[in-house]
Automatic annotation (TrEMBL):
Main enzyme class: oxidoreductase
GO molecular function: 3-hydroxybutyrate dehydrogenase activity
Protein name per its UniProtKB record: 3-hydroxybutyrate dehydrogenase
Residue ranges of coiled coil: none
Species: Roseomonas gilardii
Gene3D superfamilies in UniProt: NAD(P)-binding Rossmann-like Domain (3.40.50.720)
Stated family: Belongs to the short-chain dehydrogenases/reductases (SDR) family.
Top-level taxon: Bacteria
Catalytic activity, EC: 1.1.1.30
Length: 264
């Protein structure tokens, strides 16, 4: 394994689970020092913390900041700069989902999704960008979604937040393009095999009276021409590539990893 991130530091939001965990593990294997962040049962958080500690061979700092609160986002960033020295890489990954038709969509769910999936990325970027500029190097990676480029019914807040983060990515890229050493890009995955996404298969199978396999390929993964899950490792490796050498000109890019979803 090439240690392309030796000496680098990273804050990966929502790294206690799913895609964030995969990115944190890949970064740690490449030599980066990580601040683990996210919610979750103590058992789950401890497990990921232990996995990271085994790779890095040292204590792994952890933040349980609730990203629906702007002040907590800022505090998490201050903690990251304190324990890591400075933050080279910010991955805005934490996110939640809720589905309902727009006229029945609960107001508090709208506010929560916009706060966690969009506003937290703004606050973290604003807080950590000065340190990156000072260091003359930085990577900001926003985990958006195919839903940052196209819509689906019943996901009004999620689609709005993901389209928003795609726009924010381009603005930050333009503002940092000249002479800062900082880049900002978004990754837009299709359905990624995480426990959260896998849990959607069984209810579809029950509702439609079909097998889990048919529920997966004919319903959930239908928008993806590939009809296969995106694996967490695919997202992690793309994030790793963005942080590697020869990527100074890779900025403002909205990188799809969606098995052909948005090609149609
Ligand atoms: P996940 O549920 O496995 O992980 C989400 C992470 O966010 C967890 O660590 C959780 O603790 C954290 N989080 C949630 N709410 C939080 C809050 N209020 N404060 C702090 N942390 C909070 O989900 P995942 O599937 O790994 O998704 C990660 C990101 O990838 C999300 O932004 C999601 O929209 C995006 N994404 C997922 C898929 C997919 O199919 N799984 C596809 C495209 C994009």
């Amino acid at each position: 394994m090439e240690r392309s991130l030796e000496g680098r530091t990273a804050l990966v939001t929502g790294s206690t689970s799913g895609i964030g965990r995969g990115i944190a593990l890949a970064f740690a294997q490449a030599g980066a020092k990580i601040l683990l962040h996210g919610l979750g049962a103590p058992g789950q958080v401890d497990r990921v913390r232990a996995e990271l500690a085994e790779i890095t061979g040292g204590e792994v700092a952890y933040s349980a900041a609730d990203l629906s609160d702007a002040r907590e986002v800022r505090k998490m960033c201050a903690q990251a700069e304190e324990v890591l020295g400075h933050v080279d890489i910010l991955v805005n990954n934490a996110g939640i989902q809720f589905t309902s038709p727009v006229d029945e969509f609960p107001e508090e769910k709208w506010d929560q999704i916009i706060a966690i999936n969009l506003s937290s990325a703004f606050h973290a970027t604003a807080a950590l960008l000065p340190g990156m500029k000072k260091a003359g190097w930085g990577r900001i990676i926003n985990i958006a979604s195919a839903h940052g480029l196209v819509a689906s019914p019943n996901k009004v807040a999620y689609v709005a937040a993901k389209h928003g983060i795609v726009g924010m990515t381009k603005v930050v890229a333009l503002e940092t393009a000249r002479g800062t050493g900082v880049t900002c890009n978004a990754i837009c995955p299709g359905f990624v095999r995480t426990p959260l996404a896998e849990a959607q298969v069984e209810p579809i199978a029950k509702r439609e009276g079909i097998s889990a396999e048919a529920a997966l390929t004919e319903h959930l993964l239908r928008p993806m021409a590939s009809r296969r899950w995106v694996e967490v490792e695919e997202v992690a490796q793309m994030a790793l590539y963005i942080c590697g050498p020869h990527t100074a000109s890779l900025t403002g890019e909205i990188l799809s990893l969606d098995g052909g979803w948005t090609a149609a």
